[in-house]
Task: inverse folding
């Protein structure tokens, strides 16, 4: 299992579920929201990658903040550990139990509460599925400020809790910017109402930020208020080929400089990623003629003037072609063609799953150095592994994935700690957008100083003194369970 096989012990201070606990929860939530069914537990215990698996005997489905509060208050008093779960699409083993933690799935809390059509501020429950929110907004003339391949399953509460990045980050920025407020329930059941809907509010510490990206370790997010931009009518997408990484990098610089505010995505993949998708996903084809291109780039623009935006993109592409930055390219002629281009980029994760074992890294690096780690990894591993580099180039975020037919300790020993040391040496981040979860809880020091990590542990202790919230995740185990 490679990096999944972190050897940790169950915290003996946690209680185990009794029949009295079950009766209590049935009374609180009603029989059908207290799940003990083997098949449903099997699904809830297993992560999306089928790499991390817990052995929880209990899945709870609250329908209101009050129910979440009652659940946590009870679990805290009983020392029952809890794992909050959204769409279970997380890629770092954070959303499933490690041992027998109670799974609290927020999916039934999926109401849209309000949309202020003047400001574009949406207030909703945390269990709303990202794609459903985006479709709702589309009818109202707005767009979600984030988009990811998992949009059909991931929930906004999960997105906020992981501080998900995704494909629109370059345009709309981090959730730390667009989330205006949230409601969260702490381990002791107290409800923090921070569901502000103001753009500006400098009244003391902005505590909502603690819950953005804390991966369920500080409490359960139950409601969210988020600023959604107007949905602009003119969207163009180009699928381009570049001969080398330097060309991709220069193309990015040019795109930022000349396309300016209309630029809404700048994504890249290498030819190894393209091959992976073509081999494992049905109905996907390379829109460019087969050739020896090493890199592909997707550039999307979003603006409000159909003809002006198109002209601007075409002029940019022509200049880049003449300057040798682009070797070939095609602009989507309609929405279907555009989705077929996106399918290539968004399908890599799924294709990798079909290919066998995958070692997944999500790195932030200075753009100039970003692809060097892929090259180095490839020469370290030789032909025994397929090394893929792709990601959100516009945000300096590389997805380095290594694919082998099955998990192999010798391959793993070649990858780690090399990949983390390399990232640290270049002052990068070992988690750009997926979080630390279980996979990287003990690796945080590669990106954060020990003083910072210690302060994080103190905050965790303050908010969750018994350590019941998503234990074994995010912070090093040595700090989580110290006295
Ligand atoms: P889960 O996986 O259920 O949970 C993730 C973490 O959040 C866990 O630690 C969990 O305990 C916690 N959590 C969930 N809900 C709550 C809540 N209400 N309160 C407190 N804690 C909670 N990520 C990106 O950043 N960018 C991408 O482009 C991207 N693309 C992806 C593409 C695919 C195909 C897949 C499978 C995943 C992708 N991801 C991406 C990763 C993942 O989808 C995101 O991290 C997503 O935000 C997780 O949402 P979720 O509802 O599935 O949360
Ligand atoms: C993406 O950008 C996701 O496609 C998933 O963040 C990346 O699978 C991965 O490594
Ligand atoms: Zn990503």
Result:
């Amino acid at each position: 299992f490679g990096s999944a096989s972190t050897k940790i012990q169950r915290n003996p201070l946690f209680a185990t579920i009794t029949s009295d606990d079950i009766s209590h929860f049935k009374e609180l939530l009603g029989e059908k929201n207290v799940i003990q069914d083997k098949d449903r537990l099997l699904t809830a215990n297993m992560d999306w990658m089928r790499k991390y698996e817990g052995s929880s005997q209990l899945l709870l489905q609250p329908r209101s903040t009050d129910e979440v509060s009652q659940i946590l208050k009870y679990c805290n008093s009983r020392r029952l550990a809890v794992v909050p779960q959204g769409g279970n699409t997380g890629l770092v083993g954070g959303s499933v139990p490690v041992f027998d933690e109670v799974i609290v799935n927020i999916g039934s809390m999926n109401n849209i509460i309000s949309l202020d059509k003047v400001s574009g501020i949406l207030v909703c429950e945390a269990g709303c599925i990202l794609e459903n929110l985006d479709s709702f907004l589309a009818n109202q003339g707005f767009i979600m400020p984030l988009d990811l391949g998992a949009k059909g399953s991931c929930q906004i509460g999960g997105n906020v809790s992981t501080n998900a990045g995704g494909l629109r980050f370059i345009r709309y920025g981090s959730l730390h910017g667009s989330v205006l407020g949230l409601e969260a329930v702490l381990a002791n059941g107290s409800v923090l109402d921070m569901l502000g809907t103001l753009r500006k509010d400098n009244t003391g510490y902005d505590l909502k930020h603690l819950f953005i990206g804390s991966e369920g370790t500080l409490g359960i997010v139950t409601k969210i208020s988020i600023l959604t931009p107007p949905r602009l009518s003119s969207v163009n997408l180009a699928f381009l080929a570049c001969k080398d990484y330097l060309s991709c990098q220069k193309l990015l610089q040019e795109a930022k400089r000349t396309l300016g505010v209309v630029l809404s995505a700048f994504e890249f993949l290498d030819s190894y990623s393209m091959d992976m998708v073509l081999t494992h996903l049905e109905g996907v084809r390379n829109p460019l003629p087969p050739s020896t291109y090493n890199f592909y780039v997707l550039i999307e623009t979003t603006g409000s003037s159909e003809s002006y935006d198109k002209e601007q993109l075409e002029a940019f592409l022509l200049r880049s072609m003449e300057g040798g930055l682009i070797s070939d390219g095609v602009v989507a002629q309609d929405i279907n063609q555009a989705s077929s281009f996106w399918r290539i980029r968004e399908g890599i994760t799924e294709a990798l799953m079909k290919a066998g074992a995958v070692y997944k890294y999500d790195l932030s690096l200075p753009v100039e150095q970003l692809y060097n780690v892929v090259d180095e990894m490839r020469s370290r591993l030789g032909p025994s592994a397929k090394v893929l580099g792709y990601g959100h180039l516009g945000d300096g975020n590389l997805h380095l994935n290594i694919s082998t037919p099955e998990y192999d300790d010798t391959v793993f020993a070649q990858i780690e700690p090399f990949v983390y040391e390399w990232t640290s040496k270049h002052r990068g981040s070992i988690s750009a957008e997926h979080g630390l979860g279980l996979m990287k809880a003990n690796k945080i020091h590669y990106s954060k100083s020990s003083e910072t990590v210690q302060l994080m542990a103190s905050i965790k202790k303050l908010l969750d003194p018994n350590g019941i919230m998503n234990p074994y995740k995010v912070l090093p185990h040595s700090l989580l369970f110290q006295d």
